[in-house]
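lol so apparently i was supposed to do this last week
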Amino acid sequence: MKKKDRDSRMELREDGGVPYFIFKNLEETGMVRHGFSTRRGGVSQGHLASMNLSFTRGDEEERVRENFRRMGRAIGFEPEQLVLSDQTHTNHVRLVTEADRGKGYTSPLDYHDVDGMITDVPGLMLATFYADCVPLFFVDPVHRAIGLSHSGWKGTVQRIGAVTLQKMKEAFGTKPEDVRAAIGPSICQDCYEVSEDVAQAFTAEFKAAADERMLYRKPNGKYQLDLWRANEQVLLEAGVLPEHLEVTNVCTCCNPDMLFSHRASQGKRGNLGAFLMLTEKSEGDLDECFSFRSIRPEEAEQAARVEQICFPPNEACTEAMMKKRAAKAPELFLVAVDRKTGRMAGFLNGLSTDEEAFRDAFFTDAELYDPQGKQVMLLGLDVLPEYRGLGLARELMRRYMDREREKGRKKLLLTCLESKVNMYEGMGFQDLGISASAWGGETWHEMAADLEMTGQKPEGNL
Ligand SMILES: [Zn+2]
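anyway here it is w/ zinc ion bound
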């Protein structure tokens, strides 16, 4: 990936084969889930390959829906939580409420010309779409409110970033100096040639600020425009503090194999998505929100459904197998149940044995269960997407370790994909290298936690 020569705390993450960018300053508020997609990790074909998030650029609907589901698994949301924009290069910003849940995804849009959205409702995933234009993210940690706006050259010259902040002030009392803001991946100045009329619009709007660095004229009479700088200018003038503003260093047009770019593809392209959602306020207190216990017989089917959502088909445990396991060894399940809804938010399960090394037969044969076994082969750690980011997976593991240690077990073993090794190390596991497992046709790391050595709360940050 080509990066421009400037500091940025934007990071590329990957989950389940789906890469996406995040901004550290937004993540550090601890109250949002967010991301910006790439063109990788999806199922679309040809010039839409593969993570196209547009229903209106000639893609098959089911492919686009699968792409949204994958983004949801990676970032942590259910597609039903989405609220989509209707972008037409205006500076119109919509106050999104609970009534808008699912609009543009599970139900048709009943609003139009919406390039920006704001909300203070937790659990609504705002989504806007891009292929060179500039995504603007806003988080007000004081009033617990967010905004997400699409700023192309027209939106920039109409200062949609400032309009978004003004709307947040009117709706939530937001003060710009509290806001954490980010300018996401979009076209860089070197790639963005504009004509005389666009240049004039910027010179008129930004006056002295529209100097050589924002806009310069070339011998051919055309101009190169810096939309990053222009949007930065808009946000700073509106009162956002420089130390609260993050700017991308990745250009869509410089990276056409990684990102969709309208310019680089002459319009033959899909859409990238920006996603921003406020999480529940009370989510921090896990004990208050969840009860932790063994599984009940009637919950085996629910556990199987959670497993289908959390793992791709080749890795997920079947319903029949889950029922067998839950019937055989219910005390080796630890489920987290949402106290408000009674719904299973996640679970951890395994089988005890005296065997010392992991083998795939444990996934399919509950008869291998030995109640007195000194080891537990862990078979799945599941947390539903809408409950991620709360530390629930870590809490399940911590409680599981405590419970099994008390029963006199010596060791927990598991296999995981390379991308999860760091996470499990943070929970007290050691990487034993590549496992003999060929489950789902993937390459697995075998990891073990010595229960006699992991008496303390594991370090790290999940
Ligand atoms: Zn570029």
